[in-house]
Amino acid sequence: MRATCPTCGDVELSVTEVQVQICVTTAASTYSLLCPSCRVIVNKQANESVVESLAAAGARMMVWTLPAELDEPKLGPKITYDDLLEFHLGLEGETWQEELAALAANG
Ligand SMILES: [Zn+2]
After folding, report:
1. Half-sphere exposure at residue 8, Cβ-oriented, CA atoms within 13 angstroms
2. Counting beta carbons within 10 angstroms of the beta carbon of residue 68, is it exposed (0 to 12), middle (13 to 18) or buried (19 or more)?
3. 19, 32 in Cβ contact below 8 A?
4. pLDDT class for 107, splitting at 50, 70, 90?
5. What separation in Å is there between the alpha carbon of 18 and the centre of ligand 1?
6. How far, in Å, is the centroid of ligand 1 from the Cα of 1?
7. Does the pTM exceed 0.70?
8. Nearest by Cα to 35 from 54, 52, 10, 55
């Protein structure tokens, strides 16, 4: 089959080098292929007819769902860059495991 790589342009490849990803949660589909020329993985949106023809041609199909954590209620203020920096510096220290255990113990 023929596909388009953003770097190499039109390339010829086997359908076995194409994988279709179907998200059950959002019904959105993409497909990815390994460019035979530059070996970069190219990802593209796939509408229903593209999915059908790739499936019929024998492309690998991969079905996935969004992680359940996305449905969890988000409480508290948003994480800021300062929080992230503090977290990073905290992890560089020697005592973060003890601090975490103390936080967990205090509920
Ligand atoms: Zn390429």
Report:
1. 17
2. exposed
3. yes
4. low
5. 14
6. 15
7. no
8. 10
Q: Which residue has the tokens 């190499």?
A: 8
Interatomic CA distance for residues 29 and 23, integer angstroms: 6
Cα 8 to ligand 1 centroid, rounded to whole Å: 4
Say if strands 41-45 and 2-5 run parallel, antiparallel, or are unpaired: unpaired
Q: Which of 24-33, 79-88, 93-102 is least confident?
A: 93-102
Look up residue 17 and give its amino acid. Answer: E
Strands 18-23 and 29-34: antiparallel
Given a cut of 70, whether residue 31 has pLDDT beyond it is yes
- Return the amino acid letter for 83: D
Measure Cα distances from 102 to 14, 37, 72 in Å: 56, 54, 25
Tell me which DSSP letter residue 84 carries: H
pLDDT tens, 51-85? 999 999 999 999 999 999 998 998 999 999 999 99
Q: Where are the alpha helices (DSSP H) in the chain?
A: 48-57, 81-92, 96-105
